[in-house]
Amino acid sequence: MAGRYKAYPEYKDSGAEWLGDLPKHWEAKRLGQFFLERREKVSDKDYSALSVTMRGIVPQLDTAAKTDAGDNRKLVLKNDFVINSRSDRKGSSGVSPYDGSVSLISIVLEPRNIEPLYVHHLLRSYPFQEEFYRFGKGIVADLWSTNSSEMKNIQIPSIPLPEQKQIAKFLDHETGKIDLLIEKQQALIALLKEKRQAVISHAVTKGLNPNAKMKDSGVEWLGQVPEHWKVVSFAQCVLITGGLVDPRVEPFKGYTMIAPNHIESRSGRLLKLETAAEQGAESGKYLCQQEEVIYSKIRPALAKACLCPKDNVLCSADMYPMRGVLGLSNSYLFRLVLTDEFTAFTIMESDRVAMPKMNRESLGSTRLPIPPEAEQSDIVRHIDIECSKIDQLVGHAELAAQLLQERRTALISAAVTGKIDVRDWEPAPEAEESLKGETV
Questions:
Q1: Mean pLDDT of 399-405
Q2: pTM
């Protein structure tokens, strides 16, 4: 933050490691002096359920785990600060803009003699969150809870109320600008990924020659294909290998094992590799060989498939190890099963159960487009070149978003702990005009 923002004229030791030095006119006091804990239990029938998220307090998300504890929740009133006490939800907190109710694992605090807008930034800042969970206790190393009595002993800055409001005003404005830039990068990433899918889908279903004569494939999800391509049933041109092995015995327990969670959706990129022993695998697994296609048959909407990276790899029984035959290359098959069109077909065909699954019969009955082998190689090469360019752009956008997020985190931490002096800050006139224009 140095350079762009000035520091306070004088500092003193706060006595709290997480705060460091504070401006001379600030004090460090126990959090409990500024908040009253709200413990009242209510029903979600009387007070709407809220979710405590990394983005703050919001109406209960559709993805939130539903329980039978609807009549046993904590009351939250507008401007209360709420934080999830469990370490696996680190960063989930915020000042609530709503009246409502939250799970009993959350701590609810009513601000007293402290500005709620400042509280929202202070208690969501990275250093405070680290300090809060440092006080946690539990029976396992990676999951514990921090109780309210410990939280109340954490030292926080005690500063003049007008200064609190000024810091909140500064952070609302500056983080709003950063958030807008992050959203633009995320929108760019989404567009680039859509373009990537379009490149793959068009190449493997329509070919590279825009002037090629087309014919009806007779397959609803496929539509027209080049006239000289074959259209063959999946069962004829793809061999799904079988035979389960025990991952608990040698040599298999030392083999790399791939499960659906190891694969990035739609791209086929492997996110990590572990051995069967490291994963604690117990049930039977399929044995795969290099360049075979490993396709996840569960939750086909996630579009998870990869090329086996080497010989003697195990894959989950929730996946199909398969390879092309009768002139169908594995490289082409891999890209084909990741197309949006093929994914839409598998979603429609998957079993309508709690965990959708693509069975062998439905898979085997569909028909696939098969270009001549030389053309398959050209198509794969074209996809690799074009997707490499797109992936590079995605990488740049992801890095930009990451740096913006890091700047946001650092700016909040610096402002709420007094490392920068924003008492004289005012938004630039042109920024004010821009904001007015957006409001209109």
A1: 98
A2: 0.84
